[in-house]
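Chapter review: from sequence to fold.
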Amino acid sequence: MSEQNTQNDATRQTVRNAYADIATGRAGGCCGPTASCCGAPDAGALAKGIGYSAEELDGLPEGANMGLSCGNPTALASLKPGEVVLDLGAGGGFDVFIAARKLGPTGHAVGVDMTPEMVGKARRNAETFQKQTGLANAEFRLGEIEHLPVADSSVDVVISNCVINLSPDKPQVWREIFRVLKPGGRVAVSDLALLQPLPEALRKSVEALVGCVAGAVTIEETRTMANAAGLTGIQCESKSEAIEAMNDWNDPLYAAVRDALPSGAGIGDYVTSLHVTARKPVSCCCGQ
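The token string follows.
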């Protein structure tokens, strides 16, 4: 195994261990072992603040919204009844359940997550979701987003929420997105992106990596990777609201990250929430 592969596997295991703690209640959220996601004290308030409607949040299985979001990809995707949707890094199933209600009984929402504890939690939530809604159209699979357990050209829409930044091989993630999309299929991703290079101390921080900061790349790098994978119509829109809100959160991880920044700087000077939309061409050579 190459040194790069070894390093990538170590990064995945770091993230997997942290999210296993979150899923089992040993930790409070996505940004580290002692915090709720990015320091948010209220997952519902965070979700509303980054674009989820009260209607979308109403009636979800308890614990599905774990505060792991930095945008609302289901809104970006403009989902239609009967479509097949794939969520990369589905966690407890938050976006999958929102998508499943929009897709209706003829649609299908699939969530992939590499953490067994998260998949187990999501599957338990799916049982509750079916009892509450009568819909049996939400499914969860164990797998890495760099190697999706999904057939070629089988998905209408790929969504993801604050997850691709955690991958140590982002170009491969974008190639996988292209592979599983049907011709004409579309992408709607909410993620974090860099506005400028991170200070070295912050870039090397394991806590910052798990907290969706140190693994982020620039907006232009994101666009380049999506384009290289074969996607077209790529739109990248910076949204600063989620990052700006961190300044008001009393969170141990945020304090550690803040301490690694130059004097007078905030995370919003370096990182933004990014909305990415794109399409797979209707006519293309799909041998990738």
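Two observations follow directly from the output. Residues 39 and 54 are 21 Å apart (CA to CA). Confidence is low (pLDDT under 50) at residues 28-41.
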